[in-house]
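Slide 14.
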Amino acid sequence: MNPWIIDLTASVLGLTCVFLAGRNSKYNFWVGYLYTAALFVLFWERNLYANLLLQPVSLGINILGHYRWTHPREGERSAEDASALKVSMLSWGERGLAAMAVLVMAFAWGWTLDRLFPSDPHPYLDAVVTMLILLAQLLSALKKWDCWVAWLLVNVSQMALHLSVGNPFMAVVCGLYLVNGCWAIYSWMKRYKNNG
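Slide 15: predicted structure.
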């Protein structure tokens, strides 16, 4: 399949998914299932193995998030909609642990990729992006406001990665994700303060 078509398809699906998530729509998960499949094919074509291997994990986190957003426990319900999970935040200690975990796991994963897949053009950058994505996805699945900070870091590093391997559409998409992420940081903070 033409890599440009895969890149464009993944870009459109990704924009749609992130746009819906930023607007607190549970329908982002349905688009996310298609997006995961498109990314798997894209990363296979470009030999970005850390991101390729991330896709089955991403699918699992997407399923978890879909369930959590639509089946909140007692005390987790949104004030706007009792059938929806409310936005919450990590503590500063949890943020520190998350940052340390990303750095340690990214180094270990980058080292492993460098030895297993010598054709990966940027194993350590690939690994950092992978670990940041996992963190951002997990925080998104749990509807933590902090996920948008993690997504901003993901978008900046992914722009560099995609430009370096010739995925221009995905680099543009990452720029649009940055804009959406800035808006979502503000919007989700309002929801958090309103117990939404």
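Speaker note: Helices lie at 3-22, 28-46, 49-70, 92-116, 123-141, 147-165, 168-193.
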